[in-house]
Every structure is written in C-alpha cells, then in structure tokens.
Specification:
Number of strands: 12
Distance between the termini: 112 Å
Oligomer: single chain
Strand order of the largest sheet: 1-2-11-10-7-12
Largest sheet: 6 strands, antiparallel, barrel
Structural class: alpha+beta
Radius of gyration: 36 Å
Strand content: 25-35%
C-alpha cells in the first residue's frame, strides 16, 4: 500500500479508560494515552535508503541499553530513550534529528491505528479461550461439561488440522486496533483520547500510527465538545435547540405576576363566606322548611 501521509507515529503509554459524552448526549468509552518524550532518532531518505521513514524513540521500561544502541542514539543526542519504532511517511527530510514530537501530530477527528500487546491470561481451556459451549450437563455426562469435543476426523485426514482451536496459552499477543477516532488531543499535557479499547494493560506501551477511515462508513463521526466538558460548562455541552427549549420552559417574572393575579381572583372573600352561610341556613325548597317546622 502506498504511503500518503506525512505524520509519523508516536510511542505512548496506556493510562486507562474513561467515559465521555458526545454532543448528542450519548456516553462513549474513551482510552487515554500519554505520549511524552517522543523524539526523532533517525531519518531515512529515498536517495540513501531507498524509502522514506523516520525512527521515533521514547522512554521505555528498560533500564539499560547495549553499546550499539548507545552509539546509535548518541548521534541524535537521545541516549535516554529505549523504545524505538520506525514509521514510513512522505517528506522525511522535513524532520531533524533530536526533534521532539507529541500529541499535536494527531488532531481531533482523525483516525489512528493503535498497536499493543494484549493482557496475558496464561493457560486457558477452550470455553474461556474460544467461547466453546462445553458438553451436555445431563444424560450421564459427569466430566464433559467444559470439554472441547472432537478435534478432527478419523481415517481421513487422519491428523489434526493446523490452527485447530484448542486449549492453550491465551493472550500476550501483539494486536492492532484499526481506525480509532481521536476524540481529543491535548498537546499541553501530551495526552491523546481515542474512542474504543486499546490492546494491553494499564501502563502498557502502545504505538499510535496514522490510520484511514473505512470508505464503507458513510456516516459522520460523533462530535465531542471536550473542552467544555473538561471545564464543566454543562450548558455548552447541550445542543442549541435543547437550550432554547429549556429557556422557553423557564417561568419569567411576568409569568409570576399573571399567576399571582389568577390566584387572587380565585380566593374566596369574607362576603362570599356570609352569602354561603345564609344559603345553608335558608334552604331554597319550601317543603323542606315546612317539614322541619
């Protein structure tokens, strides 16, 4: 596939997940990635190397690096970096050795591919590893509840096919989540918020590379008002039509005056009480008065 982008990737640290609300009020899961300390450690050009790329370095978990790596990093004055990744881009000559790059490489609304190593689960059976349903629970089955069942035919082919789903080591695999939407990019704190899950545990190393939107997606991505959400301005997070409806439903001072006048007119006065008592003492039907006498 031809390389058409000019943004190199970043090496980050997965901080964790959180929930944010988009402009329509729908809750969405977001992963927070920290990308501090990324610097250019090597530049490859078409004339010298046959392709264009840049190597990016970042602080890693390794405490020591070997002598060849030290000599390589000394050229760019980045001896403290231990995580190195190469990204193929266009226009690699526009970067300089030792140049620092960060979260501003990916703006809000763009798509990225995030690569990481999944959580290791150890040895797992077929039910947990592959979601097998297990064997029957009744009719004399006493020890087949979580058994995998048959793993192949007999005489033909007389072997087990490669890739057969069976019990084994689960997790600890290099995986990539494709086309994740960048919800918000914070260059000040060097944080990138991407929609969806990212492989790996907390504090795990991940690689963020330029993605591309799936051409089959014909709908617009969700809109996030993340600046106002962080500041806590709730009104600006609501759509404008909802704000108008809320403002129209608020009772104004003029409405209070009209409401008070209506209440005063409906109050029973003392004169009304006297008339009501006279009506009770003098019944309108004369037959009732004669009978009472």
């Amino acid at each position: 596939m031809a390389i058409t982008h000019q943004n190199p990737g970043l090496i980050g640290r997965k901080i964790g997940m959180m929930t944010v609300f988009d402009a329509s009020g729908r809750a969405r899961g977001v992963t927070v990635i920290e990308v501090t300390g990324n610097r250019i450690t090597q530049i490859r050009t078409q004339d010298r190397d046959g392709y264009e790329a840049v190597q990016v370095g970042a602080p890693g978990k390794r405490n020591r690096i070997n002598k060849p790596e030290q000599g390589h990093l000394r050229k760019s004055e980045t001896e403290s970096l231990s995580e190195l990744r190469e990204f193929r881009i266009l226009g690699s000559d526009s970067f300089e050795l030792g140049q620092e790059i960060g979260a501003d490489q990916f703006e809000s609304g763009t798509y990225v591919n995030v690569t990481g190593v999944t959580k290791g689960r150890g040895f797992a059976g077929g039910v947990r590893r592959w979601n097998f349903r297990g064997g029957p629970k009744t009719h004399g089955q006493s020890d087949r509840h979580r058994a995998p069942g048959s793993i192949g035919a007999g005489t033909t082919p007389g072997r087990v096919w490669k890739g057969q789903k069976m019990a084994g080591h689960m997790g600890n695999r290099r995986r990539t989540s494709l086309n994740l939407l960048v919800v918000y990019s914070d260059p000040e704190r060097q944080l990138i918020f991407v929609q969806g899950a990212v492989p790996g545990p907390r504090n795990g190393t991940v690689i963020i590379a330029q993605g591309r939107r799936n051409p089959l997606l014909d709908y617009d991505p969700p809109v996030f008002n993340f600046d106002q959400l962080v500041e806590g301005d709730i009104e600006s997070d609501l759509p404008s039509d909802e704000i108008d409806q809320v403002e129209e439903s608020v009772v104004t001072e003029a409405d209070d005056v009209v409401l008070e006048d209506a209440i005063e007119e409906s109050v029973v006065t003392e004169a009304d009480d006297v008339v009501l008592e006279d009506a009770i003492e003098e019944p309108s039907d004369p037959s009732i008065k004669e009978d009472s006498v």
